[in-house]
Each structure stands twice: as structure tokens, then as C-alpha cells.
Amino acid sequence: MTRTTGILADRAIDALFGEGRLKSEAPLDADQVQPASLDLRLGSKAMRVRASFMPGREHKVADKLERLTLHEIDLEDGAVLETGCVYIVPLMESLDLPQDMSASANPKSSTGRLDIFTRVMVDHAQEFDKIPAGYRGPLYLEISPRTFPVIVRRGSRLSQIRFRVGHSLLSDTELLDLHQAETLVASEMPNVSGGGIALSIDLKGSGPDGLIGYRGKHHTSVIDVDRKAAHDVLDFWEPLYSRGRDELILDPDEFYILVSREAVHVPPLFAAEMTPYDPLVGEFRVHYAGFFDPGFGHASAGGAGSRAVLEVRSHEVPFILEHGQVIGRLVYEHMQERPAGLYGTGLGSSYQAQGLKLSKHFRVG
Ligand SMILES: O=c1ccn([C@H]2C[C@H](O)[C@@H](COP(=O)(O)OP(=O)(O)OP(=O)(O)O)O2)c(=O)[nH]1
């Protein structure tokens, strides 16, 4: 059964491409369409700009780039993007959305785990990562590596887009009903409010040493975003252990990879998103809002027990995180239909059934 409203599933995204609503300089990669999203690919050049900017109602991104570009970098054979710099890259994909269809973008989980700040921009935009219904035009990605310098090239996939018709977020009551039927967040006392279900932090750790997470090192070598298992964990990360304290002091300006205490489940007819920042839970933030795919944590898709990996930063002041503290919320939205492929089922998914897991670029041992 297909709903009129909701997030488009893989088949409908393929159809957008077939109908010319979604265009690209090159045919789509085989695994570019995900269960509820499309990965976006970098085009052949990057513009280093002085600072981030918003196009605003009156302007196209290209107009602003004429004024703000410091220099242009060729991405055909790969190039290094340095930490602390801001780059704008025209994407290979462009849109001609129907009047009733909008879209939203997000860094891929692998991008967030590398602390690469990315946002999608469109012409006349007044918000990042939001593409208004009926938008017709190019897509651009703002990229600013925060912790590690990275190598990217034409075709690298750092961000993803979801398409939606109407609004179909679940209310608190609907969320509680779904949780009772399907166990969304493995907790005896689910904390549901403001349309989201709470996730808390695990600081007891796992394994004999009580590994609780990782802190990014500084002045590292370069990470190639297109290479899996190519980098040694300890060259880039400092492991953090609980040592019986069940707490962690976040240093301002440091980047942490931590994990949720609860297992998370996204049933096949739903998509979820982790809300990026909730000032009510403290002066720190889960740094990158994350898309959670239909089938993530779903038992029949091999996902039982999947935790959420959290990218965390403290604001301004050092902050003590304690085991079990609420750190973010998952909001759930209806899919228009069940995706043909669920996360984890033959899609080469990297993070199904994950515990505390760094991005796919690192090898363990
Ligand atoms: O902050 C987040 C965001 C997502 N996820 C999980 C849920 C999601 O379904 C999965 C994969 O996310 P995404 O598709 O963004 O990752 P990817 O980098 O494209 O990995 P893959 O190659 O597995 O698709 O990672 C997290 O644990 N934390």
C-alpha cells in the first residue's frame, strides 16, 4: 500500500530520475539510491571561499560565488580539503521537484563520524539543508573539515537527500503506540516528548577495558573519504575508557564519538532522524543530525541490538556527561511505501548491528 504523504522510498527515487525530476551529469551509481534517501555526489571543482554564507531570497549561489571565491580546486584527480577552511562544491545532481514535493539533506553518517561539516545549499535559500517544494535548480555542498584534513574527488558522496510529500511526522501518541508495538528504543521507560523519543548515552563501556568512545587527535595525516578500512584507528583517535567512573568530561572544541545506551529500531514503514541539538539537555550537542534508514536495527534485516553512534561536542565550557544522560531524540516519519531494500539487507550497509563504531574508513587491529 502506498500513502499519499510521506518519505519517498527507493523505487520512487528511481522513478524521479526516470521522469527527469532528479537529474545528474552522469548515470546514478549502482548503490546511490538508499532505502529512503539518495547519496549526492561531488562535481568536478571546489571553490574555497572566505566564509560560509546564505544565498538569501534575492540571489543564486553562483552569483555569490563570483564575489566570494578565493580560488578554485580541480577535483577530477582528487584534492585535499584542509581543516578550518570552507569550500563550496557544485553537486552532480540537480532537481526539478513537483510542486507538492520538498526535500531535506544531511551529512551521511560516515561524514559526520569524520567531523566533516557539510550543508546543502540551493538558489535563493534562506535555510541550509532544506529544499523547498517545487525547487528547480542546482545543488551545492558547503564542506568544512573540522578535525581531519580529507581527500575528496569528483563522485565522492558526503551527503544525502530525502524527498517527502506533505508532512507525516508521528505525534507523541502515535510514537508511543508504535513503540509499544515495535520497540523503537530499547528502554523500559521510553521518554517521549516534542514528537521525539529520547536516546541516552552509554558511559559504562564495553569489553574488559570499558571502552566508552574515542576523541579525535589533532595534526593527523589525511583521510581519503572513498577508501574503506584504509586507516589505522590509533593514528587518528584516542580511545577513552570508563575506569569505573561512568562519566566523561567533554573538553570544549574536542570531537568525540560515543554510543547510545539503548538499541534503536526503525521499522520498514518508517524513517527516523536524530535531532541535532536540544538546548534543554545541556551545553553540548550531538553534532550532526543523522538520518536513520528503514530497517536499521530491524531483526529480520540482521539489525537486532543496533546502537546509535553519536558525534558529540561541548559548547564553550567543559561539560560532565553522565551515564544514562539524555543526549538526543529520534523523530519518526512515515514512508510512502515499504522500501524494496531495507538497511542491512544486501546493500553493503556499513553500520547495521553496530555498537560503538568509527566510520568505515578505519581498520581495527
Ligand atoms: O548519527 C547517526 C546517524 C546514523 N546512524 C546510523 C543509522 C543509519 O541508518 C546508519 C547509516 O547511515 P547513513 O546511510 O547516513 O551512512 P552511510 O555513511 O551512508 O553508511 P552506509 O554505507 O552504511 O549507507 O547509521 C548513527 O548511528 N548515528
From TrEMBL:
<dbReference type="GO" id="GO:0009394">
    <property type="term" value="P:2'-deoxyribonucleotide metabolic process"/>
</dbReference>
<dbReference type="InterPro" id="IPR033704">
    <property type="entry name" value="dUTPase_trimeric"/>
</dbReference>
<dbReference type="GO" id="GO:0008829">
    <property type="term" value="F:dCTP deaminase activity"/>
</dbReference>
<protein>
    <submittedName>
        <fullName>2'-deoxycytidine 5'-triphosphate deaminase</fullName>
        <ecNumber>3.5.4.13</ecNumber>
    </submittedName>
</protein>
<keyword id="KW-0546">Nucleotide metabolism</keyword>
<feature type="domain" description="2'-deoxycytidine 5'-triphosphate deaminase N-terminal">
    <location>
        <begin position="5"/>
        <end position="166"/>
    </location>
</feature>
<dbReference type="InterPro" id="IPR010550">
    <property type="entry name" value="DCD_N"/>
</dbReference>
<dbReference type="Pfam" id="PF06559">
    <property type="entry name" value="DCD_N"/>
</dbReference>
<dbReference type="Pfam" id="PF22569">
    <property type="entry name" value="DCD_C"/>
</dbReference>
<dbReference type="InterPro" id="IPR036157">
    <property type="entry name" value="dUTPase-like_sf"/>
</dbReference>
<keyword id="KW-0378">Hydrolase</keyword>
<feature type="domain" description="2'-deoxycytidine 5'-triphosphate deaminase C-terminal">
    <location>
        <begin position="171"/>
        <end position="362"/>
    </location>
</feature>
<dbReference type="InterPro" id="IPR053811">
    <property type="entry name" value="DCD_C"/>
</dbReference>
